[in-house]
Amino acid sequence: MATLQDIGVSALINLFGAFLFLIAFAVLRIQPINDRVYFPKWYLTGDRSSPRRTDGTIVGKFVNLNFKTYFTFLNWMPQAMKMSESEIIRHAGFDSAIFLRIYTLGLRIFAPAMVLALGVLVPVNVSSGTLFFLKKELVVSNIDKLSISNVQPKSSKFFFHIGVEYLFTFWACFMLYREYNNVANMRLHYLATQRRRPEQFTVVVRNVPDIPGHSVPDTVDQFFKTNHPEHYLCHQAVYNANKYAKLVKQREKLQRWFDYYVLKYQRNSHKKPFCRTGFLGLWGQMVDSIEYYKQQIKEFDHSMSLERQKVLKDSKLMLPVTFVSFDSRWGAAVCAQTQQSKNPTLWLTSSAPEPRDIYWENLAIPFISLTIRKLVIGVSVFFLVFFYMIPIAFVQSLANLEGLERVAPFLRPVIRLDFIKSFLQGFLPGLALKIFLWILPTVLLIMSKIEGYIALSTLERRAAAKYYYFMLVNVFLGSIIAGTAFEQLDSFLHQSPTQIPRTIGVSIPMKATFFITFIMVDGWAGIAGEILRIKPLVIFHLKNMFLVKTEQDRERAMDPGFVDFKETIPSLQLYFLLGIVYAVVTPILLPFILVFFAFAYLVYRHQIINVYNQQYESCGAFWPHVHGRIIASLLISQLLLMGLLASKEAADSTPLLIILPILTLSFHKYCKHRFEPAFRQYPLEDAMAKDKAEKETEPELNMKADLADAYLHPIFHSFEKEVESSSSSSEEEKHQEETPEVRVDKHETQSSTPVTELGSPSHHHYAYNSTSPSHYTTAYEQSSSHYATAYEQSSSQYEYNYETQRYEEHEYRYN
Amino acid sequence: MATLQDIGVSALINLFGAFLFLIAFAVLRIQPINDRVYFPKWYLTGDRSSPRRTDGTIVGKFVNLNFKTYFTFLNWMPQAMKMSESEIIRHAGFDSAIFLRIYTLGLRIFAPAMVLALGVLVPVNVSSGTLFFLKKELVVSNIDKLSISNVQPKSSKFFFHIGVEYLFTFWACFMLYREYNNVANMRLHYLATQRRRPEQFTVVVRNVPDIPGHSVPDTVDQFFKTNHPEHYLCHQAVYNANKYAKLVKQREKLQRWFDYYVLKYQRNSHKKPFCRTGFLGLWGQMVDSIEYYKQQIKEFDHSMSLERQKVLKDSKLMLPVTFVSFDSRWGAAVCAQTQQSKNPTLWLTSSAPEPRDIYWENLAIPFISLTIRKLVIGVSVFFLVFFYMIPIAFVQSLANLEGLERVAPFLRPVIRLDFIKSFLQGFLPGLALKIFLWILPTVLLIMSKIEGYIALSTLERRAAAKYYYFMLVNVFLGSIIAGTAFEQLDSFLHQSPTQIPRTIGVSIPMKATFFITFIMVDGWAGIAGEILRIKPLVIFHLKNMFLVKTEQDRERAMDPGFVDFKETIPSLQLYFLLGIVYAVVTPILLPFILVFFAFAYLVYRHQIINVYNQQYESCGAFWPHVHGRIIASLLISQLLLMGLLASKEAADSTPLLIILPILTLSFHKYCKHRFEPAFRQYPLEDAMAKDKAEKETEPELNMKADLADAYLHPIFHSFEKEVESSSSSSEEEKHQEETPEVRVDKHETQSSTPVTELGSPSHHHYAYNSTSPSHYTTAYEQSSSHYATAYEQSSSQYEYNYETQRYEEHEYRYN
C-alpha cells in the first residue's frame, strides 16, 4: 500500500503526462494541416470549408507560423466554456448537451461532499488512531490514517460516518432529483420547439399479420383506415433490400475509381489513363479507364433501377413491418401508446425513431424469436460477465511460445532468442486480454443487436448496460476482492447473504490507493489522450497521403467520430460508483474524482463543440439509465458501509443505516413515476398543442408529400443522392463558399428528411392510399423510368461541368 | 411419522366427517325454511320468490314432508354439473365461471401427473429400499418407503425423478398455456358480447390539477375538450360525501322503524303504537310512533336535500378526481391508455372499473402519498409475514390468567377453579392465534385499502397476494422447517444462498404425512363445511326470529355472500404448491390433492349456481395472478428438488435440473407478453368493431343520458332509490309474482346503470358541457326542488297504498 507521498509522486507523474498530452494537443491543433482532425464539426456545419491560415505562404498552409499562438496553449479551455448550453443544443444536438450535464452533475454531487467529508471525517479518522499505534506491526499506509480503517472497532465515532452517509445520500438524491427534473423539462421543451420532423407523425408497426390473399400494404391500409379513421395518412412498407444494398456498394466503388481516373487525367492531361479489366487490374484487356468506368456505371445504374423496381414490387421481399404516418402528432402519439389488436403479439406499435436512428436489419424479427433471443443473450451476458476469463485463458494457452512454434515452425530460430522469448512470454497473454477488452464494447453491441432492438440509440443503451455490469463485476468487485469473477461468484454462492457485504466492505478501505491510481491513469491520462485524438490524427494523415484521390475522398477521410455513449457513459458511472462508495470510507479519494470530472467536462465540451458529430438524436433518452445507475451506486455504497461497520462490530450504529436503502429505493421509485414517462411517451397535451400551433401557422400543409418516403430504406435514398450529387455538385461547391447558412440547411434536410431533387417530389410519393395494388405498381414504374431519363440528362451535363469544376478546385488546393 | 395405515385411518375419519356434513346439508337444503340460505341466488335472479314446497300444509311451509327426497342426498352433485359454462357466465358472472376453471386446471394438471408419478416413481422408490433395510434403526414410516427418501444417496435412479420433474413441468406449462389462452379468449369474447355498459365509455381521471380561479369541472371540461375534441362527451365530478353518507344512514334507520311500527299497527290495528323520543326510547315524551317517524323522515329528507345540494355545489367538497365519458369505446380506450399531461403525475387516466366495483374512499388520494403508502404497507407486510408471532406473543402474554385477574378481579373465584384454570391456560393462547388468523384476511384487505387502489377487485387481488405470501412463509415453509418465520428468516440470512434449498429440500419428504393430514382436515372437511353454510344458516334464522320486521328486512337477512376470492384463491394456490412440490418427492400425496380439487370443484359449482352473488365483475382479472403463482410454485419445486438431490449427493444428475427454472421463467415471460395485455388494456380493434356494430344497430343513440350519472357516488343514488322504492313498491311487488323476467332486468339495471325514475332523467343529467358554473348550479336547484315535490306526492300516495299492500302481503305469508 502506498503512502501519501507515493500517491503524491504518482499524481505528479500522471499530471505531467496529462500536461505533455495537452502541450502536444496545443501544438498540433493550430497546424492548418490538422484542422480537419481537430475541428471537423465546423466543416460539417459549413462554418468552415478550408483550414484557417495565419500566413499566406505555401508553408503556412500546412504549418502554423504565427509563433504567438504557441504560447497560449490552454486557450482552448475558455473557448470551450464560451458556448452556452442552448447554443450547444443547436450546434451539436440535445444528446451531447445532456451528456455534458452528467459531468456537471458529478461536480455538483461531489464538490460539497468533498468539503463535508474532508472537513468532518478526516479529523475524526485521524484523531481515532488505532492504526497509528499499531504501525509497526501492520503495514499501513498514511492514506489509511485518513480513512475509516483508522477508527477503533466499537467506537462511537462511527455515528459521524453514518451521519455523513445520510447527509451525502440526501444531497446526492436532491441533486439527482433537480437534474432529472431539469433534463426532463429540457427534453419536453426541446421536443415542443423542434421543427416538424417525420418521426413526430410516424409510428413503427411490427408483426403485421400475414393475411392470405392480401399484400402487407393492403392489410396495413385496411387496418389503420378502420381503427384510426380520423388521423391515418399513409404508410411506408419496409423491403428486404440486401441484394440491392450490395449493388449500391459496388456502384460507389466504381464511382470512386471513375473520379480517380478523371483526376489523374486532369493532373496529366497529355496522358490518357488506361487500366486492365481483369482481377485487381493485373491482367485482361487494356481499356480507356474513364470511358470504361463511365460505361460500367451506366450499366450498373440500369441493373440497379431494375433491381430497385423488383424489390419494391415483389411482395415476398416486403417485411411484416411498416412505418405508419398520421396527419397529426396526436394521432401518432395515440397509436404508439395503445394496444391495437386483441392478440398482443400482432400490430405492435411504438413511436418511430428518427430515420437515421433506425437499425434496419432488426425490423423483420418476429415476436416469438425476440423472447428466445433475449433469453439467450441474457444467459450469454451472465456467462460473459462471470466467466470471461475462460475463453481468454484458452486463447492464452494457445498463444504461448510452444503454440506459436507449432503454428509457425519457421519462426523457431527467432523465438528461441532469449530477449524475444521473454518479451513474448510476458507480452502474449496480456495481449490476448487487451484485445478482448478492446473488442468488448463491439461484442456487447453485437449482442444487443441480436436481441432485436430496432433503434441504434436503444442498441447503444443496451450495450452500455451490459458494459456497466461487466465493469461493476470485473473492475470494481474484481479489484476489491482478489480472484476472477467466477471465483467471486462461487464464494458468494457459498456465503450467507449477510456475509457478502461484510466480505467486500472489509476490503474496501484497503483498495483506496489502487483506485486513486486507477483514477489518475485511466481517468486523467485517458481524458488527456482523448483530446489529442491520436488514432484519428494518424489515420487522417495516412489516408491523406495514400488514399485521398478526390476532394470527396478527403471529406470522407475526415472522421469526426461521435461520443461513444456505449463506452463513455458506463465508464463515467464507474467513477460515480467509486466516488460514492469512497466518500465516507476514504474521503481523500474525492479530490481525485473531482479533478477527473472537471477536466473531463472541459475536454468533452471542447470535443463536442469542435470535433464530434453525433449519428442520431435520441433526445437524452439515456438519462433514466444514468439516474438509475447512480441510485444503484448509492445502494451499493450503503450496503458495503453496513458490511464494513458490521465487521467493525459497531452494533449500536449499524442498524441506523437500514432505513437508508429503503428511503433511497423509494426515492428512485418516485423519480421513475415522476420523470420517466417523459422519456418514454409523448404526452397528448403537448402533441395537441403543437398540432394546433402548426395548423394556425401553416393551414395548407401537404403532410403526405413530406412524409411519403421519409422512412424509405436509406439504401434507396443513397442511389438518389448519388445521382443528385453528381448533377448539383457544381452549384453546390460555389454555394459553400458564398453562403454557408444555405449549406447548413441543406445538410440538415438531407439527414433528417431527405428530399430528392430530381423531378417533382410527387413523382415518387407513391399513392399509398389507393386501394388497388396495380395503381401502386404503376406509380412506381413511372417514377423509376423518370429516374432513368433524369440520370441520362444529368450525367451528360455532369461530364460537361466536371472538367471545369474539378480543374478549378485542383488549382485552388495545390497551387 | 405416520404409517400408511395411520393415514388410512385419518382419511377414513375425515371422509366420515365430510360425509356427515354432506348428510346434514342434504337434510337442511330441502327444508323450505332454509331455502333462502341455500338457494339465495335464485331469489336474486328473480327465478324464485318463495320457497319451493312439496306440501300445501302449514308445516310443509317450514319442513320438507316429502320423505323420498331425503334418500337422494347426493343429487345436488349431478344438478351442479348440469349447467354449462356459458350458462354459468350468464347466471353468476364471468368471474365465477373463471374461478371454477382454476379447479379444472388443477384436475387437468394433477391427474396425468398422478398416473405418471405413481406408475413410475413409486416402483422406483420402493425397489431402492435404503430405508427398508435401516428400518430398525430409523423411525421410518411406510409412506417414506414410497417417497424419494427411500432411494439410496448417489443412486443413478434419481435420473427417473429428474425425468419426471421435466415431464411434469412441461405438462403443467402446456396446461397453463392452454388455460391462459382459453381464459384470455373467453374474456375478450365476453367483453365483445357484453351489452353497453358505462365502464366501456368511461375513464377515471385522477390528480386533476388545481388551477386557481377554475373549478374542477371547468378544468376537466376544458382539458378534455382541447385534447380529445373528437370523442369527449361529458364528465362526472366526485364529491366528498362523508357527512351526507351519515345522513343517509340515519334516514335508513328511521325508515326501518317507520316500517316496523306500521307493520305493528297492522297486526294490532286496534292499538296505535306509541314510543318515547328520548335515548333508546327509554324516556322522553310519548308520541304516536307512525306520525312521529313520518314527521322525522320528512324533516330528514329536507335536510338531506339541503346537504345534497350543498355537497354538489360546494367546490371545496369536489375531489380532484373525475369520471370522464366518451362517445365511443375507442375514445375511452385511447384516453385510458395514453399519457395526457407532460407532468406524468397529473391527469392520470385508467379504464374505469364498473360503478359497483369502485372503492370511493380511495379516489381522493394524491399521487405522492401513494408512493409513501405503498412503501409503508410493503414494509408492514414484510413484518407481518416474518414477525407475526411478536404481537401474538404479546397478546398471549396479556391474555394469561394473571393478566385476566388483573383486568377483571371479580372473575378471580371462577378462574381459580382447577377445571376452568386448565381450560383457560390451554385455550387462551390458542384463542389469540385463532382470532389473529381469522381476522388476517380483513387486516390484509385494510392494508390494501391503505395502499390506495380504487377498485374493489384490485383491492381483493392485492389482499390475496399478501395472504399468499403469508401462507407460503408461515404455512408451507413454517411447517417444513420448525420454528417461527422470524427464526427462519434469521437462519436464512446467515446461510449461503445455495444452502437454503438444501435445508428445506431435506425436510420436505419428512413432512409429507403432515401435509396429507392437512389436505384432509383443511381441504376435504373445510369444503364440506363450506357447502353447509353454518354461519349464514344460524345468522339467517336468528335474524328471522328477532330482527325481521318487514319483508324488506327478510330480503336483507338473506345473505347470499360471495366467493371470497381474497381468501379462496390463495388457499387454492397453496394446494397447487403442495401438489407440485410433492409430485416428484412423495407422489402418494397426489391422490389426496386430486380428491380435494374434484370435491371442491363440485361444491363451488353448486354454491356458485345456487348461493353466491358476486359483488362486482372484474372479467377474470385475477387469472394472471393464478397463472403467475402456479409458475412460482413450479420454480419453488424445482429449486427444492435441486436442494434435495444435492443433499443426496446426486452430483451427476443435479446439474441437469438447472436448465428447468430458466425454461420455466422464459415460459412465464412469454405468457406475460402474449396474454397479459388482454387483462390490462382494451384493444382498439375490438373497441372500434363494437362501436361500429352499435352505430349500425342504434344510430340515434343518446349516449349522454345513459352516462350522465352512472358514476355518481352510490350514496346519492340510495336517496333516489329510497324515494323510488316507496313510490313504486306497490307495483313492483306484483310484478315479481307475475313476470320474473322483468324483475331480472330491473335488478340488473339498478346495479349497473341506476336510472332514477322520478321525473324525466334529463332533470338531473346536469348540463356538464355548459361552460358557465352558474348554469350548472341552477340545473341542480331545479332538480332538487323537483325531488322535494316528487317526494311529497309519492309519500302521500305511499300512505294510501301502504296499508292495502302490506296487509295483503302479511296475510299471504303468515296465514
Would you spell out the secondary-structure blueprint of this structure?
The structure is a homodimer of 815-residue chains.
Chain A: H1 4-29, H2 35-38, H3 40-45, H4 76-82, H5 85-92, H6 94-128, H7 130-134, H8 142-146, H9 158-193, H10 198-201, E1 202-206, H11 216-227, E2 232-239, H12 242-267, E3 274-276, E4 286-288, H13 289-313, E5 318-326, H14 329-337, E6 348-351, H15 367-387, H16 389-398, H17 401-407, H18 412-415, H19 418-451, H20 456-480, H21 485-493, H22 499-507, H23 512-532, H24 534-546, H25 551-557, H26 565-585, H27 590-610, H28 623-647, H29 659-675, H30 677-680, H31 684-697, H32 703-707, H33 714-738, H34 740-752, H35 773-814
Antiparallel strand pairs in A: 1-5, 1-6, 2-5, 3-4
How does this structure look, described?
Chain A has 35 helices and 6 strands. The first copy, chain A, has 815 residues and is mainly alpha-helical. In chain A, the strands form 2 sheets. Chain A has a 4-stranded antiparallel β-sheet with strand order 2-5-1-6. In chain A, strands 3-4 form a two-stranded antiparallel sheet. Chain A starts with a helix and ends with a helix. Mean pLDDT of chain A is 75; it is low at 134-140 and 722-815. At the A-B interface, helix 11, helix 14, helix 15, helix 29 and helix 31 of A face helix 11, helix 14, helix 15, helix 29 and helix 31 of B. Chains A, B: It holds the Pfam family RSN1_7TM. Chains A, B: Residues 791-804 have a biased composition (Low complexity). Chains A, B: Residues 200-362 form the CSC1/OSCA1-like cytosolic domain. Chains A, B: Its main location: membrane.
